[in-house]
TrEMBL record:
It comes from Ramlibacter ginsenosidimutans. This is Beta-lactamase family protein. Residues 18-311 form the Beta-lactamase-related domain. Transmembrane segments: none annotated. InterPro entries: Beta-lactam-related, Beta-lactam/transpept-like, Diverse_Enzym_Activities.
Amino acid sequence: MHPPDAQPILDLLAGVRGAIPGVSLAILRAGEITTIHAVGSRGSDDAAPVDVSTVFEAASLTKPLVSLIALQLAEEGRLDLTAPLESLCGPYVPDDPRAAAITAAHVLTHTSGLPNIVTKETPLRTYFVPGARFSYGSSAFAWLQRAMEKVTGQSLENLARERVFDRLGMADSSLQWQERFEANHARGQEMDGTPVPKRRPVAPSASWSLHTTARDYARFVQLVLRAQGLGSDMHARWLAPAVRATRGIDDVLDPSPAEADGIAWGLGWGLEPSQDCLFHWGHIPGFRAFVIANRRTKDAVVWFANSARGLRLGRLVLPAILPGPHASMEWLQVGRTVQGP
């Protein structure tokens, strides 16, 4: 059973089947998980139905979970957020003196100066002084992961298992591929419907490797909204605006990017300060994911889609769940319609 206010959302999901093979979605009202729903198929090349236990690739929705663990280690005095990562676990960026100043706080606020994705055009180096400004930088999370594993003597997977998955009952979640996922996992597709080969990460990656369900991730969101898992001071720091985002998101090559309207970043979360909302998105070939929560009302939604069109669901579902303007949709340049391939 679903509460009456969920039915319009479920009808919307049923109506986008031509563009998005499968969706897994969870809704929270006043901090309680009221709706968990799955619709569609596991992929364009797998007609089996999606259910609430179907495992999706979460992509960058991994980062808020990793940020929680990092802040827990900081509270315990094991990870100094302001200490250079190089002093904790050795160098990561070769022949770049500026990189020696990068801290865990820089990584979590995306102010490290390192690129988002390392490519020929953007090799691994700093593109501005660490701390000078925002530029979304996934590559920096590998260094943070190395530091977290160094100071604890544990793998990131074990840290996540002990501190998050087991404690919250997230039985269908892991930062590395599990054989039990083979029986029920989603397969991604690109905009034109081309299937994407399944990724099965053999080791955890702090920036992208989470495999999970909407049901499991909603339990993590519930922890955030209940201010659990951290002391009150650290929880406040987690969700406090630390830096204004820039319009280009990952614009390390722009020497003077303009600030984004209405978007800030905390220690691991994107923020819409005017709406008192926190958010994050996941973007990896063939999959899209999104989570947004209102800290005041404690209403939230998280969804996973096995299609590159999956973020466009925000234009349909957010007006019903979290009404009002959402700068995150404009910042991410989310399309206004979900159309068939």
